[in-house]
Structures are given as structure tokens and as C-alpha cells.
Amino acid sequence: MPACCERSILFAAIVLAVAAHGLGATAPAALGQTKMTPPAPVCGRPLHPTPSETEGPYYKPNTPERASLVEATMAGTKLVVTGHVLSTDCKPIAGAWLDFWQANDRGEYDNAGYRLRGHQFTDKAGIYYLETILPGLYPGRTRHIHVKVRAPNRPILTTQLYFPGERQNQADGIFNSALVVAMRDTSSGKVATFDFVLNIGSL
Ligand SMILES: [Fe+2]
To answer: Is the pTM value of this prediction over 0.85?
Structure first.
């Protein structure tokens, strides 16, 4: 191929890449909605690893691979959780495994099946994207989502995500403010962002 044309193709690819990621453009989501790109991580210094938390009694392995846990008849407030999986030197981790599980709108876990359970893998930019509902409260706990995160061939981080402005946060002995998502309201539900930082050294 002539050098001129190779350069043109390369330029077009760069323009598309910038439009799709750097400028926060959108791509089709699993539910046919607009898929948001999370804010770029703030780098420039070593990041603090995401703290681990107890697994709790309700984890089930072998979850289905899916980015959306929402079902047609499911009650609750729609919620998107998105962000990056990063190393402590702020490098995005592609192909990281994330396994989410949570209570339903009434604070109940599905321990017989896999409702509100599912795993997914980060894309080439280290981004995950979960469509779910706001988990309900159950006695003794504040509102939370459980998750396991693992970079390829590295140890698993087991932790939980929390929500801002919850009255029960300070009364929950497991709650950790370092695990609170940033959240905002949109016309189609709530959008939460959180970057996981894995303590796996430099990539
Ligand atoms: Fe829980």
C-alpha cells in the first residue's frame, strides 16, 4: 500500500479512537440505551489500591457472563455502574474479570438462581460497564454491591461498593468511605462511577 494511503488510514483510525474514548463519545449499550464513557482516571502519582472487604455469605461462583443484570419485570431504580480497572501506576487493565452480586429492590439475594448476579471483562481501555438496579437495604447493612475483581492471572480482590448520602453508611461496621461511588441522576436512572485499583505492581 502506498505510504500516503497508509498515513490516511492511520489518521482516520486515530480520529475514531479519540472520538470514541478521549472525548467521551457514546456507543450502543446492551439495552439499546446510550452507553456512557467513564471519566478518564486521574493519574500522575501512584494510586491507592482499592481496599478489600468481606465476601459475605451470599456469593455464588459460575455466574453468567453479562453486562446487564436488569430483567423486564424487575422492580427498582435503574443504575449504571462504570469505571476502569487500573494498576497502581494508573495503567488500564484489559480483560480484567469482574463478578458482581447484589440484593434486589427488597434487600433479598437470589440464592437459588443467578438473578442480579453476573460477570464481565474489561475492554481494551480497561473499562467495565454494569447495568443493574439500586440494591435494596437489608437488616444490619447499608446499601452496597458486592464485587470480585481480578486482572488476568493475578489474585482476586473481593470488595463492596457503597453509595453517597446513605444514612446507614456510618452505622455499618463494614462500610469504608474509600469504596463510595460517585453518582448522579440522569433521565434514565442513576449513573455511578468507580475505578478499581489493583495492587499488582507495574504492568
Ligand atoms: Fe450483601
So the answer is: no
